[in-house]
Amino acid sequence: MITTDTTIKNIITESLAKATSYQTYRTLVQDLVAAGKSTGEEQTEALSNYSMLNDRRMKRLDKTTKLTEEAIAEIKSYNGDVTWLILTESWCGDAAQTMPVINKVAELNDNITLKVVLRDENEALMNEFLTNGGKSIPKLIAIDNASGDVIGNWGPRPTKATQLVNDYKAEHGTLTPEFKQDLQVWYNKDKGQNTVSDLLKLV
């Protein structure tokens, strides 16, 4: 089935109606973690543990993420009018490492509205923005507010992290728990800078 532009716009409109702010999403995750839960219908000990770890990560990154003067100037000079709609879930490690950075960028310019929806509650939207056929998150969809057109998308990882993942998969076939730990170390060293440079291409 070929999805028409009109259909995609309708799907996006429906998802936007359910979307929350970043701050509301953070409160939701904190409340779920306090109750020993995660987002999504599936509730397991592993997912709740990931969510707890990610809540801590996001809390830290919300406080510590810093942007360069050059990046700040470039973001502030953007004069479009867009909504960045992010598909995510609380258990996703890549989302925890990048969403606070995305929020910092969006906060710098009133022309960028950041909205959040949960992947498993927005299947039709997720299916329009698959990565290599998979429902990988986070996925940021940039929407022009005047026309409703999708003018770009990003995710599920910054470009350098994507390269690390692709190289490892090519050599080993699958991502091991050890690699996933190494990827978190890479995120911690990068401090969101690769995510910022990717996002600058959307503005």
TrEMBL record:
Taxonomic lineage of the native organism: Bacteria, Pseudomonadati, Bacteroidota, Flavobacteriia, Flavobacteriales
Q: What is this protein called?
A: Thioredoxin family protein
Q: Which domain of life is it from?
A: Bacteria
Q: Tell me the organism.
A: Kordia aestuariivivens
Q: Which InterPro entries is this protein grouped with? A: Thioredoxin-like_sf
